[in-house]
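Input record, target 12 of the design panel.
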């Protein structure tokens, strides 16, 4: 239950007091991760603040990564930010499961295409040669956390298009059929396209992390993949050498 207009700091803006009230309940554990927080209308009614004040408080907390706002559903306490190893080629389903969460994959595209100049160059194929293209959105507890946009060399994985990637990820299939011998990575910050915003359910102004990765099995380039993560929901980690 919300108390009506708690004792905010008289010298601070009202929206800052609303933010502090929400944060205190999050940090105390009263509102755990994935707990639905009061809506703008509920904050207005419960605290006696304006709708503009309530909107700004929720919006800023979402921008700071404390809340996840899902259009048409509500605002929820953000789970501890997921993480992925930066230079280790791991299966995202395993990473999510290890956190005790539920992985789900949605296949947006799985098709045979003609390799563009850029794709052909990356896969070391002739331009317009056949290539396999998959687009998969990975979700953690129902919230999208990664777009996997992958091109595959048919010679390395001839039965790629026959797989059910809602049951097992492309990473698992490729690891079993074209064992990894090497990889290269390019990491960059990127602003999402309108389609990426739709798939990740984020705003156009929300920055993303993008990894461009090529993998080899022996001397054969197996795949070129671009992995897009919402910056507020994921972090990338790397550790080398001795740490203790």
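The sequence produced for target 12 reads:
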């Amino acid at each position: 239950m919300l108390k009506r207009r708690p004792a905010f700091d008289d010298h601070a803006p009202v929206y800052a007091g609303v933010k502090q009230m929400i944060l205190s309940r999050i940090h105390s554990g009263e509102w755990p991760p994935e707990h639905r927080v009061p809506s703008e209308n509920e904050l207005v009614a419960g605290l006696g603040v304006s709708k503009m004040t309530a909107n700004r408080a929720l919006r800023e907390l979402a921008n700071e990564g404390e809340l996840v706002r899902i259009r048409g559903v509500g605002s929820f306490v953000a789970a501890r930010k997921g993480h992925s190893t930066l230079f280790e080629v791991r299966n995202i389903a395993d990473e999510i499961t290890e956190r005790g969460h539920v992985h789900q994959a949605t296949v947006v595209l799985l098709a045979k295409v003609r390799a563009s100049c850029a794709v052909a160059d990356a896969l070391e194929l002739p331009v317009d040669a056949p290539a396999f293209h998959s687009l998969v959105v990975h979700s953690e507890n129902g919230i999208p956390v990664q777009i996997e946009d992958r091109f595959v060399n048919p010679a390395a994985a001839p039965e790629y298009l026959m797989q059910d990637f809602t049951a097992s990820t492309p990473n698992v299939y490729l690891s079993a059929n074209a064992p990894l011998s090497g990889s290269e990575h390019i990491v960059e910050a990127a602003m999402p396209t309108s389609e990426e915003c739709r798939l990740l359910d984020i705003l156009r102004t929300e920055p993303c992390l993008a990894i461009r990765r090529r993998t080899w099995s022996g001397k054969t380039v197996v795949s070129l993949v671009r992995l897009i993560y919402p910056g507020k929901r994921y972090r990338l980690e790397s550790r080398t050498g001795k740490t203790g």
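Residues 14-77 form a domain with the Arc Repressor Mutant, subunit A fold (CATH 1.10.10.10).
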